Amino acid sequence: MDTGGARRLAVRAIVLGATLLSGCGDGRAVSAPTFVVHRTGVVVLSGIPFAAQPDLQARVESTTGAALAYWGGTWDALAGVTITLDPARYVACGGKSNATGCYDGDVRISTSDLGRPFSCVEQTTLVHEIGHAVIGDPGHQDPRWMDFEPVAAQLTGRPGYTSEGEVDCPIAVSVWRHPPEAP
């Protein structure tokens, strides 16, 4: 790990500790990771069927790995980051209350899209939010925000899950796309 990465982790640990001790913060509950992949904590708050499957850790790891490759990043970009699977339809992000995903130093993703639950982690905005973790680009100026077919091809064909059992997990890249925002 480079010195900047070590310093970032140390600062995050100090801030987290101070936040826990003070009871202050941004209103989000701090939860211990459900599991860790490559120094990235994953918190599963959602009771959605795909989140209860024994393959969840492997699926988060492989989906995040495909996203990192797409964005030109490595797992080092996510060291110390927490990915939270949230049951709410929306997550708070940068003063907005209606985002389906957010990267603000940590990743939070909704496990519902327009109120309908996803059948697999690959359908969430995880790939999109990993993009923000790797390249930043809050205005979505990079052309890759509109061309997710290469990463979707890597993730296609996996099973999904509902309360009734195993189903298809169709990937809709429109969930990940974002046209450039006006400056």
Overview of the molecule:
The protein is α+β, with helices and mostly antiparallel strands and 183 residues long. Helices cover 29% and strands 21% of the residues. It is built from four helices and eleven strands; from the N terminus they run H-E-E-H-E-E-E-E-E-E-E-H-H-E-E. Mean pLDDT is 85; it is low at 1-28. It has one domain (22-175). The longest helix has 20 residues, at 3-22. The strands form four sheets. A five-stranded mixed sheet has the order 1-2-3-7-6, with helices on one face.
What can be said about this structure in brief?
With 183 residues, this protein is of the alpha+beta class.
Would you spell out the secondary-structure blueprint of this structure?
Layout: H1 3-22, E1 35-37, E2 40-44, H2 56-71, E3 82-86, E4 91-93, E5 96-99, E6 101-103, E7 107-110, E8 112-113, E9 116-117, H3 126-135, H4 149-155, E10 159-162, E11 165-168
Parallel strand pairs: 2-3, 3-7
Antiparallel strand pairs: 1-2, 4-5, 6-7, 8-9, 10-11
Helix pairs in contact: 2-3, 2-4
What distinguishing features does this structure have?
4 helices; 11 strands; 183 residues; two-stranded antiparallel sheet; single chain; globular; alpha+beta; five-stranded mixed sheet
**What fraction of the residues are assigned to beta strands by DSSP?**
15-25%
Write out the strand line-up for the largest beta sheet, numbering strands in chain order: 1-2-3-7-6
First CA to last CA: what distance?
35 Å
Radius of gyration: 16 Å
| Helix count from the secondary structure assignment | 4
Strand runs, count: 11
Helix content estimate: 25-40%
Order of helices and strands: HEEHEEEEEEEHHEE
In terms of quaternary structure, the protein is single chain
Mean pLDDT, to the nearest integer, reads 85
- Summing up helix and strand content along with how strands pair, one would put the structural category as alpha+beta
- The tally of domains stands at 1
Shape: globular
Task: Note the main sheet.
Answer: 5 strands, mixed
Low-confidence stretches: 1-28
